[in-house]
């Protein structure tokens, strides 16, 4: 199996399901499971907390005892089994419990694949941006398919498409895997990666992690309420998918060129640009509550998300030893993609019912401090 192809295919498979989950899951809970926006925000927010706990403890611990292939397989199987529990669940309580269980397995697939990617970049010299762009392409395909399916067959197709996607993700683990990912961690490896505490002692790592926590958390309202916001603007469901995909297409274009476009840029410069782009994005949506401006703001996703993500991956790949990469990925996924997003999802849900625009504007409470932290620390820690 060609290492580059394997990574590209796995990114595609996961982000195909992510293109179902991220923009549509809250809307599915509201429309198909009859939850209110407030109830759905509580369910999804607590799911993000469960995701954070899983990525912080469950994923790094499991990664110390099984190889990358088996790790991905265990998580994919767990995600499929827990997703099926949604079928009999109709009450707020049952949906809350199932979402917690699902969030313990499914989102952990992301740091698992990212850890595989970092290992392949370090040891097999694959191009991260090239393979990651396939993930974004999978996201685009999923959003378009769901838009068409829901327009014809209704919102229940969101759930069944996720089941099909998870089965496909599980089947991917049966294919040939790069040899470097088949190595089972040794006792010595476990001792070297025994604790995440050593990460905090690395010069610059805590600061970089804090910055990406702020920048990624600032997408909370967009992820949870972007679909509902476009519905409130009376956008046809078919066009909602197309509008959401604008952001991902810009993300794809960035990742395709990232390995050559920003090779001379420091991580701090990338993070600074990401913070500026993110701040501009949320301010525009607040100031101009219409579809045209929302569409234009989607272009900034290449800065607010993709640039920040690439900066962190590049930083840990160049800075950390192989044994510590799963720990770093676990922290990143738990805190930046989980905990901070969860906290801001609660805030966004409360503000959305007051005024939808406020839920987006509130995100600058993260982006502005991120910009200031970069400016204050980039010379001191030389990142």
TrEMBL record:
PANTHER family: 3-PHENYLPROPIONIC ACID TRANSPORTER-RELATED, BLL5896 PROTEIN. Gene3D superfamilies: MFS general substrate transporter like domains. The keyword Cell inner membrane applies. This is 3-phosphoglycerate kinase. The keyword DNA-binding does not apply. Residues 6-360 form the Major facilitator superfamily associated domain. The chain crosses the membrane at residues 12-30, 42-59, 71-89, 95-113, 134-153, 159-184, 205-225, 237-256, 268-288, 294-317, 329-352, 358-377. The lineage of its organism: Bacteria, Bacillati, Bacillota, Bacilli, Bacillales. GO terms for molecular function: kinase activity. It is a multi-pass membrane protein. Keywords: Cell inner membrane, Cell membrane, Kinase, Membrane, Transferase, Transmembrane, Transmembrane helix, Transport. InterPro entries: HcaT-like (IPR026032), MFS_assoc_dom (IPR024989), MFS_trans_sf (IPR036259). It is found in: Cell inner membrane. It comes from Lysinibacillus contaminans.
């Amino acid at each position: 199996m060609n290492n580059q192809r394997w990574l590209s295919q796995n990114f595609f498979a996961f982000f195909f399901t992510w293109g179902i989950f991220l923009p549509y899951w809250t809307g599915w809970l509201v429309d198909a499971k009859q939850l209110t926006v407030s109830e759905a925000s509580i369910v999804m927010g607590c799911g993000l907390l469960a995701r954070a706990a899983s990525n912080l403890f469950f994923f790094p611990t499991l990664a110390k005892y099984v190889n990358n292939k088996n790790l991905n397989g265990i998580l994919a199987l767990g995600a499929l089994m827990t997703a099926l529990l949604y079928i009999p669940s109709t009450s707020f309580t049952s949906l809350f419990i199932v979402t917690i269980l699902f969030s313990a397995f499914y989102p952990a697939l992301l740091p698992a694949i990212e850890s595989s990617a970092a290992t392949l970049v370090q040891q097999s010299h694959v191009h991260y941006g090239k393979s990651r762009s396939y993930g974004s392409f999978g996201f685009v395909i999923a959003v378009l398919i769901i838009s068409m399916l829901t327009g014809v067959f209704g919102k229940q197709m969101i759930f069944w498409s996720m089941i099909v996607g998870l089965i496909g993700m599980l089947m991917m683990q049966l294919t040939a895997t790069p040899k470097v990912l088949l190595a089972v961690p040794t006792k010595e490896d476990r001792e070297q990666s025994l604790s995440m505490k050593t990460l905090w002692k690395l010069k610059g790592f805590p600061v970089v992690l804090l910055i990406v926590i702020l920048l990624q958390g600032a997408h909370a309202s967009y992820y949870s309420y972007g679909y509902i916001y476009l519905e409130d603007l009376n956008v046809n469901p078919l066009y909602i998918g197309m509008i959401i995909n604008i952001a991902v297409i810009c993300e794809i274009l960035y990742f395709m060129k990232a390995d050559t476009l920003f090779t001379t840029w420091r991580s701090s410069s990338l993070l600074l640009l990401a913070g500026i782009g993110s701040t501009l994005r949320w301010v525009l949506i607040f100031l101009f509550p219409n579809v045209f401006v929302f569409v234009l703001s989607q272009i900034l996703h290449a800065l607010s998300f993709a640039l920040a993500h690439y900066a962190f991956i590049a930083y840990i790949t160049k800075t950390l030893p192989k044994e510590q990469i799963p720990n770093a990925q676990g922290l990143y996924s738990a805190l930046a993609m989980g905990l901070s997003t969860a906290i801001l999802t609660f805030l966004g849900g409360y503000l959305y019912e007051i005024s939808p625009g406020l839920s987006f504007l509130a995100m600058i409470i993260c982006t502005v401090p991120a910009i200031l932290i970069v400016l204050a620390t980039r010379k001191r820690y030389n990142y």
